[in-house]
Design a protein that fits this description.
By secondary structure, this protein is of the alpha/beta class. It has five helices and eleven strands, in the order βββαβααββββββαβα. The protein has a six-stranded mixed β-sheet, with no helix packed on it.
């Protein structure tokens, strides 16, 4: 089960997805709300946190999550103070009940990762791809439009056309013709 714990939050935050199952994991921690209390309402224990990237709106709630659940945080850049363990490009990791492949997808930020599980057809796209062909900002530090386009193209090549769920770093998830939103983002980023 995948739940966006930031749904309905009226403060500036990223989405924060609780992926329940064999290994209950939080994908991004969000910011400006007490995500630890929201997690506690749903589960007693948390097995870990994985980060799509380390912009403040995705990591600000980590201290509260660490304190409440004593978990390690995984991300692409082990030199970042919030990252305990590195996730390498292509690495396989369990989120909930499924194996996900980590895809290093820079362009919005150098340490950006997407997570794709082929069997159930689920993609956590972070701030790379959004609903209706929107894509991550490239005007921030480490932003690079060319790298972002390459990353979207890579995701489009790896992900199957029958993608069932696209979970984004901001805004609503997509569960209807999800792959088309990847294609639209690739087209839009070129203009």
């Amino acid at each position: 089960m995948i739940t966006n714990l930031a749904a309905g939050v009226q403060a500036f935050t990223s989405n924060a997805f609780l992926v329940e199952g064999e290994r209950t994991v939080l994908v991004d921690a969000g910011a400006n709300f007490d995500v630890a209390s929201v997690i506690r309402e749903r589960v007693e224990a948390l097995d870990g946190v994985v980060l799509t990237h380390t912009h403040r709106d995705h990591v600000e709630n980590l201290p509260g999550v660490r304190e409440a659940f004593d978990v390690n945080v995984q991300g692409f850049d082990p030199d970042h103070p919030e990252v305990d363990h590195a996730i390498d490009d292509g690495e396989s990791l369990t989120l909930g009940d499924h194996e996900y492949r980590a895809l290093h997808t820079p362009g919005h930020k150098d340490d950006h990762l997407c997570f794709y599980a082929a069997d159930p057809g689920i993609l956590f796209a972070g701030d790379l791809i959004f609903r209706n062909g929107s894509f991550g900002r490239t005007d921030l530090e480490e932003g690079d439009r060319g790298a972002l386009i390459d990353s979207i193209d890579r995701v489009a090549e790896v992900v199957a056309a029958d993608l069932a769920q696209l979970h984004t770093g901001h805004g609503p998830s997509v569960e209807d013709d999800a792959y088309s939103h990847i294609e639209l983002a690739g087209q839009a980023a070129r203009f």
